[in-house]
Amino acid sequence: MGRAGGVNRQARRVWALHLGVLVGLGVLQFLLPPYHQGVVTRILLFSTYAVGYNLLLGYTGLLSLGHALYFAAGLYGAGLPVYYLGLEAVEAFFVGLLGSMAVAALLGIPALRTTGLRFSIVTLLFGQTGYLLTLYFNRITWADQGLTLPLQVPPLLRYNLALLLFGGVLLGTLWLVRSPFGRVLMGLREHEERTQLLGYDPFLYRWTAHLLSGALSGAAGAAYALLFAYVGNAFASVLYSVYPVLWVLVGGAGTTLGPLVGVALVTYAVEAASGLLHAYLVVVGAALVLLIRAFPQGILGSLRDRRWRWLP
Amino acid sequence: MDDVNFRVEETEIRALIGPNGAGKTTLANLITGRLRPTSGRVYFEGKEITFLPPHRRVRMGIVCTLQIPSVLRGLSVFENVLLALQRTELRRPLDFLRPNEEALRVRVCEVLETVGLGDTRAQLAGALPYGHQRLLELAMALALRPRLLVLDEPTQGLSPEEIAHWVALIRRVAQTTTILLIEHNLPVVLELAHRITVMDRGRILFEGTPREVEEEPTVQRVYLGAGG
Questions:
Q1: Which among A163, A204, A291, B52 is least buried, having the fewest CB atoms inside 10 angstroms?
Q2: Which of A68, A196, A62 is nearest to A119 (CA)?
C-alpha cells in the first residue's frame, strides 16, 4: 500500500503549493505600491486568460491563433450591456461568460474537425473575423476609440476580485487535469489513434476542452471590462491572440502554474524594457528567444522535467 | 481486397495467415473500424457496424492491438492501463466527476499482474523494452473487457520465452473472449488456433482446422513461394 500513501502525499503537496501561491498573491497586495497593484491585477486577469488557453494548448495539444475572439466576446459581452442597457456588473459578467461560451460552442464544431496546422489557420481566421466585426459595428462598439463604462471599482477590491477569479480558475483547472477527463485529453495529445482505440471520441473531448477554454478566456475578458471599466478592440486583435501563446510557452505549456509565471515574466519584461528604450519589443523578443532556448518546455515545464516531477 | 466473405464464431480462436500484402491487416482494420469498405457490410453480434467509428466499436467490445506497439509513450505504465480501465469502469457521469480512485488503482494492478508487468507500474511506457510494450498494449486491451480481441502480429520481434508467455496468456484469455489472431509465426498459429483462414492477394484462399491447413497443397505453395 506504499504507492497509495505516496500518491496521497503527492496530491496534498500539489494542492498545498497552489493554495500557497494564492495566499502569497493575497498578501502581495499589501506590499505593493498602487501602480504595481494595478499591474498585478492585470497580470491576474491575463493569467486567467492564459490558464484557459493552456487547457487547449498544453493539455489538449491544439494551438489556437484566434483566442482573442473569446476574450473579446467576454469583454464586449459584459461591457456593452452595462453601457447600453444599464445592467448590473454581476449580471453583465455572466452575460459575457455565456456569450463567449456560445461562440466557443458554435465555432468549435467546424474548427475541431481539423487539427494541427489547419486548426491554427482556422482559428486565426475566426479571430480576425471577430476583430473585423468590432470595426464593422463601430457605431455600437466604438471600436477605434474604446468605450469607457460608468463603473468605479476601488483598486483593492479590483485586485481581490481578480484574485478570486484567478484562484477559482486555477484550482478548477488543477482538479480538471487530474480528473478522468483530463487523462483522456492527455491521451489524445500523446497518441490520438491509440486513445480513440480505447473507446474515446476524439472530437467530443476536444470540443469540450475548447468550450472550457473559451469560457475561461471569456470570463477573463468580462472581468477585465468590468474591473477596468474599459472596452476596446485592441483586445480583439491578433496581438492578444499571440500573447497567450507567448505567455504559456514561456511559463510552461501543460503545467498549471506555468501561465501565471509566463504572464508575470512577460509583463514585467515589457515594463522594464519600455522604460529604457523605444525599441523595447525587440529587446523583449530577444530575451524571450534566449529564455526558450534555455528552457525549451517553458520555465515550469523544464523545472518539472529536470527536478520536480510531481509538479502538475 | 476482393470479394471476401469472412465469419468468426464466438469464443473461437481464429488465425489469419498469409504472405505480406495478402490483406490480413486490411481485413482486421475493417473489423476494428480503422478502415471503411468501398462495398460490403460488417456485422458484429447481429448488429451492422460497417460505418461505425472505431471508438464506438470498442464500446461494443471489439478491441485490438496494433502491428507496431502503440502505447502512450509519455505516460507511465500505470497511467496507460488506467486510461483504458476508466473507459469500462466509469460508466455513469457521476463516476466521471467523483471516481473511486482507490478501486481503480486496485484494478490497474490486477490487470498488470495478469500480463506479468506488475513491477513496472511507475515506469515511462516509452522507456519499456519492446516485449514489455507489447504486453502493455495487451494489458490495455484486456482492461477494456473485450468480446472480440484482434491481435495483429503480437509475437513479432519477441524472444522464444516471450512468445511462450504470450501463447499461455492468449489461451487463458480465449476462455472468455473470441480471438482473431494475425500471425506470421506458424508454430504459434498451429498451436493456438481452432480454425485458420489463409489469405493471398486480397482473397481468402482456404479455411480449415490446423491439420487441414497443414496438408492443403495450395497453402504450401503460397507459403513456400513467399517465404512467410
A1: A204
A2: A62
CA distance A215 to A237: 18
Dmax (CA) for chain B in angstroms is: 60
Each as own residue / partner, the long-range contacts of residues B205-213 (CB below 8 Å, 24 or more positions apart, any chain) are: B205/B18
- Interface pTM (ipTM) of the complex? 0.89
Residue A10 host element (H or E): helix A2-28
Which residues of chain A have a CB within 8 Å of the CB of B140?
198
Q: Is B59 near chain A, with CB under 8 Å?
A: yes
Q: Do B51 and B109 have their domain in common?
A: no
pLDDT for the residue B218? 80
Measured N-to-C along each axis, helices A202-228 and A68-80 cross at an angle, to the nearest 10 degrees, of 50
- Report CB contact under 8 Å: A201, B87: no
Question: What's the pLDDT tens digit per position in B76-135?
Answer: 999 999 999 998 888 777 777 777 888 888 999 999 999 988 888 888 999 999 999 999
Q: How many domains does chain B have?
A: 2
Query: Of A292, A51, A302, A68, which Cα lies nearest the Cα of A172?
Result: A51
Contacts of B90 in chain A (CB under 8 A): 180
Show the domain range for B214.
Answer: 1-61+146-228
Output the nine-digit C-alpha cell for B82: 488506467
Please indicate, yes or no, if residue B67 is contained in any of the structural domains.
no
Amino acid code (one letter) for B108: V
Output the domain CATH number for residue A58.
1.10.3470.10
Q: Round to whole Å and give the CA distance between A38 and B143.
A: 52
The shortest CB-CB distance from A180 to any of B53, B54, B99 is to B99
Compute the CA torsion angle A297, A298, A303, A309 (nearest 10 deg). Answer: -50
A176 touches chain B (CB under 8 A): no
Distance from C-alpha of A184 to C-alpha of B82, rounded to nearest angstrom: 10
The answer to whether residues A235 and A71 touch, using CB atoms and an 8 Å cutoff, is yes
Pick from B59, B87, B105: CB nearest A4: B105
User: Are B222 and B200 contacting, i.e. CB atoms less than 8 angstroms apart?
Assistant: yes
- The Cα of A46 is separated from the nearest Cα of chain B by a number of Å equal to 28
pTM assigned to the model = 0.90
Task: State how far the Cα of A33 lies from the Cα of A63, in Å rounded to an integer.
Answer: 37
